[in-house]
Design a protein that fits this description.
The chain starts with 10 loop residues before the first strand and ends in an 18-residue tail after the last helix. The relative contact order is 0.16. The strands form 3 sheets. A 5-stranded mixed β-sheet has the order 2-1-3-4-5. With 318 residues, the protein is an alpha+beta fold. It is elongated and about 75 Å long. β1, α1 and β2 form a beta-alpha-beta unit. The chain is built from 11 helices and 10 strands.
Length: 318
């Protein structure tokens, strides 16, 4: 039987509501966020922790930011409001330090200072975006692929009180395999002898850079039983010996009944994930990722369609 190692803990993002969090609103947010974090699978990109604090109801984004800062919660956060269910969109609020840094850069380097309001000590930078897009965009911001300023659709100068409608979107439907292609990582699994095959043929090895001496893949039967696809994975060691189990990178079979999804997350232990984050065990870095070719993914992103073709970019994946 193919073995799935324990998945990495996802990074937990906090969300606060400016309206009473009725069950239908909570369910809507969990569903949309789950679509974008690929919560149907055991290793989602991120997890969401929703807080319904009556003292935050009707507060502005700036006032919530100030209160959280005073409580020692200085990271960015999500805001759920009265339009979230109908527009399937939330707000991402940057940290105070990041907001001040962006304002300085936009003022001194871009010569595009934001609009300011006398009742606010600084300009709060934020983005209104589809809930399903947030997990992927947060990852892009976190690893430095793109800055939130590049995602803000409003004309500059930036106005922190602008409605930012329609919400930002990457333009893909992450609820199906076609729309999700290239935006998530398949699992690394342990295959026992008889569950995989090895090859040193040039053709399958040529799909990887650097080119490995061997490639491995699950047998059709083993892949079907595990809910996975059959595909070659790079192997940089010697040919596996007789009776040797191996670790193979593969991909989920979206059509397998094993991954039937009810629209909600698969019982992620948010508290445990948050505890491990606090001691530096971030889910995004708890294991090495396989060699991947991101050229096709980059070409699909709206902000990168005019980018020159990739040569041999040194790409760090999360």
């Amino acid at each position: 039987m193919v073995v799935f190692p324990p998945p990495c803990d996802p990074t937990v993002l906090d969300a606060y509501s400016t309206v009473p969090l009725v069950p239908s609103l909570r369910t809507s947010v969990l569903h949309d966020f789950g679509v974008g974090s690929f919560a149907r699978f055991p290793n989602p990109i991120t997890a969401i922790s929703i807080h319904d604090r009556p003292d935050f109801h009707s507060l502005s984004h700036y006032d919530i930011r100030q209160r959280l800062d005073a409580e020692g919660h200085e990271d960015g956060f999500i805001v759920i409001d009265e339009d979230t269910a109908s527009k399937h969109a939330v707000w991402w609020i940057t940290s105070t330090s990041n907001s001040k840094s962006i304002t300085e850069d936009m003022t001194t380097e871009a010569d595009a200072p934001p609009i300011t309001y006398p009742e606010e000590a600084y300009t709060l930078w934020k983005l209104h975006l589809l809930t399903q897009d947030l997990p992927i965009q947060w990852t892009n911001w976190d690893i430095g692929n793109i800055d939130i300023v590049e995602d803000i659709a409003e004309a500059f100068p930036y106005d922190p009180h602008a409605p930012q409608d329609p919400p930002f979107t990457l333009g893909f439907n992450f609820s199906n395999k076609e729309g999700a292609r290239g935006f998530y990582y398949g699992p690394d699994v342990i295959a026992a002898p008889g569950e995989y095959e090895a090859s040193d043929d040039v053709e399958p090895r040529s799909n990887f850079m650097p080119r490995p001496p061997w490639v491995l893949r699950l047998t059709a039967e083993a892949a079907r039983e595990a809910g996975l696809l059959v595909g070659w994975s790079a192997w940089f060691g010697n040919k596996p010996g007789e009776g040797e189990s191996v670790r193979i990178h593969t991909d989920y079979d979206w059509d397998s009944p094993k991954w039937a999804w009810d629209g909600l997350a698969r019982g992620i232990d948010v508290q445990t994930a948050r505890l491990r984050q606090s001691i530096g065990r971030l889910g995004r870095t708890c294991k090495q990722r396989p060699v991947v070719d991101i050229s096709a993914l980059v070409d699909r992103l709206p902000w990168a369609r005019n980018r020159p073709a990739l040569a041999q970019d040194n790409v760090a994946t999360s």
